[in-house]
Structures are given as structure tokens and as C-alpha cells.
Amino acid sequence: MTTRRTTLASRIGLPAAVVGLLLFTLFPVYWMVSTALDPKASLRGSDVLPSGIGFEHFEFVFDKGNFGTYLLNSAIVGLTTIVAAALLSLFAAIAVARFKFRFRTSVLIMILIVQMVPLEALVIPLFIQMRDYDMLNSLLGLSIVYIALSLPFAIWTLRGFVATVPKEVEEAAYIDGASWPRMFWSVLLPLVAPGLVATSIFAFITAWNEFVFAYTFMKGSDKYTAAVGIYQFFGENSTAWGPVMASSTLVTVPVMIFFVIVHRKLGSGLAAGAVKG
Amino acid sequence: MPAPRGPRPPDGAAEAARRRKKLITLTRPWLLLAPSLVVLAGLLLWPLIQVGKLSLEDYEVKFGGGTSTFTGFDHYSDLLSSSLLWKTVLPNTVFFAFACVGLTVALGTLVALLLNRLGTTWRMICSVAILAAWAMPAVTGTYVWIWLFQPQDGMVSQIAGSVGLIDPETTNWFTERGPFYAIATLNVVHHGFPFVAITVLAGLLTIPKELYEAGELDGANAWQRFWNITVPTIKPVFLVVTILSTIWDFKVFTQVYLQPGGDGSNEEVYNLGVFSYIQAFAKNDYGTGAAAAVLLTVLLLIITVVYIRTLFRQGEEDL
């Protein structure tokens, strides 16, 4: 009885579920890319196939829309965020995973709580603060905000990774006469490298995708990030869908490539964060 | 004066070494934590205190600087007595968040179970598809869904029109709360379920196969095996993805703000985040905006307390 139902389910149910899943996940992606390539984008209606293939919209967003600058801005902000967040969160993760000290639990809980703070609550005071320090319109100022936003999650995830490195491995290194920095570089760092990759990806994604702060802080149009840059092609009543989708494609595809390359590490990174803490 | 040669008294040396070691042990974790704590305190904690202060003031921008007048709890009493908050903003925020969380976790779990049963090749293909949905930034994803549901020329509007469901010339999905938030929900779930699917899958892979074999021998059907074996075994994973989704979905801003009418031009579709933002930046009423932000923070803090308590209760002796 059970076996027959299982075979029936796997004969029809599984393929149907797979097709449904692929349609639901990929159709919006397909629609974005094919609209971007369709020279008559705004007239597509219910045509599933584009009326033609061309790169006019991509040329338009680079020539008229200044999108190259926005992508560069996003890349600068993203890389700054990655480097700083990875470094800071690794130090912090080692501290909370390896050492017993007073207030350790309180520190961890505080880190958890600040992760819950809604961005809209922060955007008002940070806007005022940034304006007072003349940091509006500054890529560095925006990066600092993103570093802070990605730190809590990064610390919690990396904590899981550092905790999985057996203490014996470190102790063995000490017995062999390694100093603490040496142990860090040659023992701990290689072992937590996958976790570091996962946290860097998350930090990069945070910075790359963020809209509210970039939209509020960056008012000079040459300082837009790519996520905000799309907004200029979008109109409430009449939207040039070709350029909107071309720039959307340019923002999405790098992330997609990233995800596919690192997806194994991504899964284990999430599991370490979720299971260990 | 040169130090005396030869072995020093063993007691003093050992004592000094021990004291130095103790000092290092005490300060090292704090030195490692310091940079992160400074950044978090300066950019998350301090602004949060500021927003609390701001919610008790009237803040005005004058000649590039700001002046504030203390007004006590006026903004809160105005906010809490407004029918807009109780009839529109709060229901929108809460129902939308719970719909998104429920659907995200349910769909993510189903997909994780599916991936777990697939062979290597198809699991690979489906994982890449899921990653693609995840990789679409909230901004770009939102534009795609708007384009699909665009009145008149959007794909869904045209198909619904051609089968006679709606009149595509007059139907605008975005002007009413129901359809507006249905589209936003679709968008948030599409973007959010991959995180749940991949995390739950990672959890599923840790469950020993013997448990299921034993369950099958005892005559448990698939449904019973799921509720009695899968759910209890990876309960911590479910807790974390549910609570994280809750926190994220209460804070949804971009997906609502970018949809037509979501930027404040249609009061019907306000949620707490958008309301706070519009008050502060469009109406220059920072005080009310801050009060709404505090309200949202309090809501999320309550959820956080639940989160922390469950984390502690899952038997993590050394957090």
C-alpha cells in the first residue's frame, strides 16, 4: 500500500512538482531578461516570446542612463562592505566562540537584538546624523551603514563555523609550539574559510541590493547605486519597461552567478548559523 | 641597573607570568569584539536611541541644521488615536507579514522535501532555479511583478482579460488593498522561500535514515513520518527560519514602496514602515515618523524576545 502510493507519487507527483517549481521560480527571471532583450518591450502584453532580440535597451541604460557609473558605485560599496564586515565579524566570532568571559551572553543577545531593528527606524536618525557630519552622498558613508547592517548576521553565522573547528586542533598547534597569530593564520583561518566566504556573500548581497538607505542618502545622481539607478526609468503612469528590465537584469545577473558558484558553501553556512545558534 | 643574572626566584616569575596570562585572557576577547561593537553601537544602537528621543520632539530643519522642541508623548497619542493606524496601517502590516511568513515557510519546507527526494541532476537544476529567485534583488523583483500585473498591458492583466475575468482597460490591481498586497505577497514569497528551502534542506540532510525506516516499519504514513520524525528532529531549524522570516516580513519596505501607489500616494496601502518613512521624508514630520518607527521596533522586539527564549530553551547550554 505504502509502496504503491510512493511509486505513483514519484511517477506523476514529483515531475509535476518539479515543473511547477521551475515555472514559479524562473518565470519572473525569464520575463525580466526577455523583456530587456525585446526591442518592443512595452508592447509585449501576453506574448511569452519576445518580438525580437536586440541590445538597444542595454545600450540605452549605459549611454543615456549613466548605468555604468551606478554599477561601479555598487561594486565599490559592495567590496568595501565585504572586506570590513568579514574582518570585523571574524574577530568578533572568535571572541564569542572561543573565549569564556563575563557578559558574553549579554553581548550575543545585544547583537541579536540590533539585528531586529527595522531599517525604517534607523533611516531617520541616520539621515540627520549623516547630514550633520556631511556624509550624505558619500560612498564611504553608505558603506559604513551596510557594514553595520551585515555585521550581526555575519557574527552569528561565523560563530557557528568557529565553534565547529575542534579545540583539539588548536591545542595540537599550541603543543607544536605555534603562537596565537600563527595558529590563527595556519590553523583557524583555513578551517573557517567556507564560513568566511558565506558571510562575505551575505555582506555583498546586503550592500548590492539595499534600496532604502541608498535612495534616501544618495541625492546626487552620479552617486546612485545600481538598485536606485533603476528607479529613474520607472514612472508611475508610463514606464519604459525595456530600460527598467535591462537595468534590472544588470543588477540581478552578477548576484546569480555568485550564488551558483558558491551555492554549496551557502547551504552549509546557513545551516551553521541556524543549527548552532 | 642591570638585572641580576641567573634564575630568578621561581615564585615571583610564575606569579608574574600567571598575572600577565590572566590579563591577556581577560582583555583578548574584548579587543577582538571592540571594532564590531563600536560599529554596531554607533550605527544601530545610538540611532535607535535617537529615534526614541526624536519621537518625543518636534524636529524642524532650518538652514541646514535642525532644531527640536520637546513635545512629550504628543506624537504617540496622535498616532494611537488615529483611525488610519488602526484601520489601515496596522492591519496591513500584521496580516501581510503573517501571510508572507506562513506561505514562505510552508512553500520553503515543501520545496526542501522535494529537493531531498530528487536525484543529483534534478536537485542541481532545481537548486539553481531557486538560487535565481533568491538572487533577484527586492528592487528588480518588484519591478518584474509590477510589469506582469501592469494594468492594460501587463501579461497577467491581458490573460485575465482574455478569459473574461476582468476588463483590462478598467482594472487596476494596485489601487485596492487586497490585490495590492496579494501581489506584494507573491513577490515576497518568491524572494523569501529559497532561504527557507535551502536551510531546511540542510537540516533534512542531517536526519539519520534509520529513523524513517523505523517509522515505516511501524506503519507510519508519509504525513505521520513528517510530523513525528522530521518536524521534531529539526525543530530548531524551523524555529529559526520562521522567526527570521517574521522579522523580515514585518520590515518589508521596498516591495511596498515601489509598487504603484505604495510611495504614499495611496493611504489605503500604507504599512507601518512606509507610513513612518512618508511622515518623516515627504511630510517633514520627523516626530510622528519616529513614533511610528518606535512602534514597529517594539513589535519586533516582542518577536525578538520570543526568538531568544526559544533559542535558550533548545538546550544550548553555552550560548
Automatic annotation (TrEMBL), chain A:
Residues 71-262 form the ABC transmembrane type-1 domain. GO terms for biological process: transmembrane transport. It is found in: Cell membrane. GO terms for cellular component: plasma membrane. InterPro entries: BP-dep_ABC_trans_perm (IPR050901), MetI-like (IPR000515), MetI-like_sf (IPR035906). PROSITE patterns: ABC_TM1. Keywords: Cell membrane, Membrane, Transmembrane, Transmembrane helix, Transport. The chain crosses the membrane at residues 12-33, 70-95, 107-128, 140-162, 183-208, 240-262. This is Sugar ABC transporter permease. Its main location: membrane. It is a multi-pass membrane protein. The keyword Ribosomal protein does not apply. It comes from the Bacteria. PANTHER family: INNER MEMBRANE ABC TRANSPORTER PERMEASE PROTEIN YCJP, MALTOSE TRANSPORT SYSTEM PERMEASE-RELATED. Belongs to the binding-protein-dependent transport system permease family.
